[in-house]
Amino acid sequence: MNLIVLGKKIQAGINKRGRLFFSRRKAHSLRKKLIKEKNHQVVDNELKKDLKSYSKETFGNNAYWPWLALYTEIRGEFKPGWLPDDYYTVILLDEYCPEDARISNYKTFDHRLFPGFALEPLLVKVSGQFYDSNKRAQTIHEAQKVLNYYSKEVVIKEDSQLGGGSVKFIESTKIKLSDFSYLPNFIIQPLIKQHETLNRLSHNAVSTVRIITFLKDNGEIETKYSKFRFGVGDSRVDNTSAGGGFCFIDADGTLSEVAFDGGGTKMGNKHPDTGFEFKNTKIPNYDMILENCIKSHRIYPYVKIIGWDVTVNEKGDPVLLEWNADPGLWLSEALIGPRFANDF
Predict the structure, then answer these.
(1) Which of 174, 184, 190, 337 has its CA 20 to 30 A from that of 261?
(2) Integer CA distances (angstroms), 138 to 62, 120, 204, in order
């Protein structure tokens, strides 16, 4: 083994230990906050010993107990088979969703990879070159004319940005493309009109269905989690990091009775702004959403776990807004898991 290869292995080991450390510190912090909010603690010293023993037996190291303890505080009891987030993000993702295969960060590529499902853009800028919706190269002046002619609100998304924080909503005629010259890759999409059912529930942000699909060893693709995400207040995005909430979806496409925030705390059975009840609300064309997500995972089988963010337009058609090749699982796993007990 030469020194370069050895150096890379040492550096990879250091990075791995660092990621595990910060992940577990996050679990401790979230658990401490939750205990303070509830003024109640589920995991005592005896249960902590059991969690460590279980971690050692199941994952090969008793250090994986902090996320299991957090899940237990959220759920009120321990569930064997849970997938701790540090094991998932640091160990499993590197094997099942290699970093160089996580091209979901390139939002400018979605409409080419999943035509007919991903939202078609008005304009795309890739490596400094503009393209229109027909994939024809455009000068900056031609691209500007496309925006001026469209004359409606649009959405601007940069590549490699997560959580909705970089999403911009702006009238197309107010965009000066020269102001975005510092960005090599971004996409400009039309503002989608969501189905009336989703709009009645939450109308400030386009709501999405988050589907987690998993590619099994036998080649079958299974749906692991399905939840409905909605915005709250004046937020234009439905991410929980922006204050949004979510509720899980039953097999027939109906919403569960109670919604949760990004920390797993119950938000109640009605939307806090509109007062719309979640229970018995059915997602339009839910079966078609699942079918499209499974079909799309077959198109891109290079990662085993994918998170799909799908809305339903005013005509009832499922539309893929984004997808994620390293989706977060810990909160869903804590609330309704385990869902991966027989997979790893």
Answers:
(1) 190
(2) 57, 17, 33
Q: Which residue has the tokens 């959220």?
A: 74
CA distances from 48 to 17, 30, 60, 72 (A): 22, 16, 16, 10
Query: Which residue's structure tokens are 């939840």?
Result: 227
Rounded CA gap, 177 and 179, in Å?
5
Which residues fall within 8 angstroms of residue 180, CB to CB, at 6 or more apart?
A: 125, 156, 186
| pLDDT for position 162 | 59
Neighbours of 63 (CB within 10 A): 16
Q: 286: exposed, middle or buried (C-beta count within 10 Å: 0-12, 13-18, 19+)?
A: buried
Q: What is the pLDDT of residues 192-244, one digit of tens each?
A: 999 999 998 888 889 999 999 999 999 999 999 999 999 887 777 777 766 78
Other Cβ atoms within 10 Å of 123 Cβ, number: 24
For 126, the 3-state DSSP assignment is strand
Give me 29's structure tokens: 């912090």
DSSP assignment of 258-276 equals: -EE-TTS-EEESB-TTT--
Please state, in angstroms and rounded to a whole number, the distance separating the CA atoms of residues 130 and 323: 23
> How many Cβ atoms from other residues are within 10 Å of residue 220's Cβ?
9
Alpha helices, DSSP H only, in the chain? 3-38, 45-59, 65-75, 85-86, 93-96, 110-113, 140-150, 196-201, 286-299, 330-336
Do β-strands 123-126 and 137-138 pair in parallel, antiparallel, or remain unpaired? unpaired
Phi, psi dihedrals of residue 339, rounded to the nearest 5°: -120, -5
Residues 34 and 28: their CA atoms lie apart, in Å, by 10
Q: What is the mean pLDDT of residues 67-81?
A: 97
Contact 59, 87 (CB under 8 A): yes
Kindly state the helix (H) or strand (E) to which residue 79 belongs, with its residue range.
Answer: none
Structure tokens, 76 = 């009120």
Q: Which region, left, alpha or beta, applies to residue 233 given φ > 0 means left and ψ of -120 to 50 means alpha?
A: left
CA dist., res. 224 & res. 339, Å (int): 6
**pTM here?**
0.92
